[in-house]
Amino acid sequence: MNTKCFLAFFFALLPVAVLADGPLESALEKAGSNRKQMELALEQVPEAQREGMAFLIEHMPERDLTTLKADFLLKNVQLAYQAWESAPWKDQIPQHIFLNDVLPYASITETREDWRSDFHARFSDLVKEAKTPSEAAVILNQNIFQVLSVKYSTKRKRADQSPSESIEQGLASCSGLSVMLIDACRAVGVPARFVGTPLWTNNSGNHSWVEIYDDGWQFTGACEATGPELNQGWFIGNASQAERDNPLHAIYATSYRTTSIAFPMVWDRRAQYVHAVNVTDRYTRLREKLPEGVERVGFVAMQGDSDQRVALPLSVADAAGKVLFTGKTNNEDFDRNDHVTVPLKLGETYQVTFGDQPAKQVKAVGNHQLVVYKAPDSKPEASQDSTKEPDAKEEAGLTPRQVRSQIARLWKQYSGAELAQRRAETASGKIQIGERTMPFWYKVFGRKPKGGRSLYISMHGGGGAPARVNDGQYENQKGLYQPAEGVYFVPRAPTDTWNLWHEAHIDDFFQRVIENMVLLEGVNPDRVYIMGYSAGGDGVFQLAPRMADRLAAASMMAGHPNETTPEGLRNLPFTIHMGENDGAYDRNKKAAQWKTKLAELHKQDPDGYIHEVTIHPGRGHWMNRQDAVALPWMAKHTRNSTPDLVVWKQDDVTHNRFYWLAVDDTHAKTGAVVRVKRDGNTFEIEQCDVPKLTIRVNDEMIDFGKNVVVTYQGKTLFDGKLTRSKSVVEKTFDERHDPTAVFSAEVEVAIP
User: How many beta carbons lie within 10 A of that of residue 176, not counting itself?
Assistant: First the structure.
């Protein structure tokens, strides 16, 4: 045998993986200990299907490279090629479309399973007369959900269910239904892909649907067949308003082939391995042409105060009584954002009738207007843990149980209304308030404790510097600390000013962060901590006293207090870490001064001003992570929302609420001090620099069966009983959406 023939023979005997190079070899390396399974799949796949197998492995997410077995991949590839090659429309499907939108075994983050065998056996006969991919897709959409006994419901266990998980429950939301239709299409050789938006531009929620390839991409709603036609659906109006360059409001289609965009999955923001393409332009071209001054107004009927939609007869008439629309409102059989809409002239008033109730006047104002009608609740009276709204009699004096039920109801309404938007906001990686935007990054550590996770908001250094400098500090902060448990949240300051962490807008941004993490990551609002290094430490000095009632502890590293003082830290454990040689701006001297001040305050008030100040010997501005001990120190503390003494000193950024005290916005003045001591039902105002003060209470603080007494300089300002009030519960909940810091009664006193 000559050398040339021998080499050819030798290489033919080598495992296929040895010959892999470039992206394929890179994928095989990522497979780690599962590499043999990937190589086995490449070795055993028929030559005619090897391109497909190589494509799957080359673009495969790492979660699958390390877990999928050769047998699973070989079967998937075999059935995909078989369906494609036997389809009447095979010649209409380009090779790259087949590889990307027929061959893949999954669409998003769903459980990996062999749906292809089952669906091919079930549905091949259904589409045997179809001549085009569109015809087949329509037939499947009209039939498979009845065959599989699966219907739309937000009560499904997960958004990203696999077909078998949806079939087992008989329920799926738009994401799970879309996965099922895509898999049914692919099983019979129809190219299909998953499409969706993180958030409609009217902020009503997210949505997912399906695109079918037939001489270009066509769309349809899964389990929402629109007769024999594609490119129709209730969501066209919303989709046509999408914003291509806004990641929150754009429309994306999944791509198994690697792209530079990650599909924004609001149910799992951390999953970045599903790739996507931006297809917004296809949908904005569908924008409905309405006469000038006319917009669609939505109508929905809810069952009482619940979040359940009900189908009620709906009639809309103009001022002269001419009926413009009759029909029914959508119930829970329809997508959560699918509402009946009627084109109405802006500024005009219409007669709207729900069910057999009297007509109500509705003025068309536009801007994604949704008219919500609360249908009378015909259900029997709920049990003791009911979350029904208290009636007028209860308003005269709620019971403790009714207060708890009211808070539970408010939380349910708030979370139901906000969840989709907050998920989309978090998936976008940035929060926008007004004209300012705050990017962020976070990572979850440890197991979630029974009471909920901790939250560490960690502020980067930098300050008055070019954006690239602050960007670098932001990146550095991400790896600076690692809590044993909790959400480690690193925001990028919205500005590049010297005081970037204590400008007035920061309070609102951090309130939003806390709300989002409580909603999405199960954070316990009594275990929220702030920390910061250098300019971030400056922020801690300023934010901790003025936001103390929202925090459990705070840690300042290598920062400067500027003009702030520690009086407001009475109920907030506070730790300082400073390098002994950190002399710039006298930071080390300021830290020593605060150590003395805090010690004096604690000596005068042994139950308050818990603190720990560490000056690290020999260290300068960089403490070489010796300051990381601050995290376990903070973790020992939880927030006390109802302390027995409140010391409130207004900063240059003022607030109208602090623990169980409140003032009118007009009385919130920089430097004003309020100091109130609580002993059972007696409240002694020791200092008050405002003309009127509101004291709030709940059942943790007082005995509602006894009089509440408020005194100031020996004078009694109030002596009487308080009653638990629905309006106070609602007001104090709505202020911060903090269910553990809600009050049920209040009294306002004038300071003589």
Answer: 28
What is the DSSP annotation of 495-526?
A: --STTTTSSTHHHHHHHHHHHHHHHHH-EEEE
CA 600 to chain centre: 43
Q: Does domain 294-375 sit in CATH 2.40.50.100?
A: no
Q: What angle do CA 534, 540, 543 make, to 5 degrees?
A: 145
Closest CA to 485 of 514, 449, 519: 449
> Taking the model in full, what pTM does it have?
0.54
For helices 505-521 and 400-428, angle between their N-to-C axes, nearest 10 degrees: 100
Burial of 734 (0-12, 13-18, 19+ CB in 10 A): exposed
Q: How confident is the model at residue 378 (pLDDT cuts 50, 70, 90)?
A: low
Tokens linked to 688? 């008050």
| Element containing residue 730 per DSSP (H, E) | helix 726-736
Q: Are 181 and 200 in contact (CB under 8 A)?
A: no
- CB 531, CB 430: distance < 8 Å: no
Domain boundaries, the chain: 87-226, 294-375, 388-428+641-752, 431-635
Q: Comparing C-alpha atoms, which of 172, 179, 174, 183 is closest to residue 194?
A: 179
Give residue 14's pLDDT.
38
pLDDT tens, position by position, 700-745? 999 999 999 999 999 999 999 999 999 999 999 999 999 999 999 9
End-to-end Cα spacing for the chain: 112
List all residues 6 or more positions away from 375 whose beta carbon is below 8 Å from its beta carbon.
Answer: 301, 302, 303, 304, 310, 312, 354, 355
User: Does domain 431-635 match CATH 3.40.50.1820?
Assistant: yes
| Tokens, residue 635 | 């973790």
Alpha-carbon Rg for the chain in angstroms? 31
In 3D space, the residue among 101, 54, 48 whose CA is nearest the CA of residue 73 turns out to be: 54
pLDDT digits (tens, 9 = 90+) for 520-534: 999 999 999 999 999
Instruction: Answer whether CATH 3.65.10.10 is correct for domain 87-226.
Output: no
The single residue listed with the structure tokens 């998003």 is 108
Question: CA 592, CA 616: separation in Å to the nearest integer?
Answer: 12
Instruction: Concatenate the DSSP letters of all residues of 525-564 into one string.
Output: EEEEEEEEETHHHHHHHHHHHHSGGG-SEEEEES---TT-
Can you tell me whether residue 191 is helix, strand or coil? coil
Sheet of 313-317: strand order equals 323-328, 313-317, 349-354, 360-363
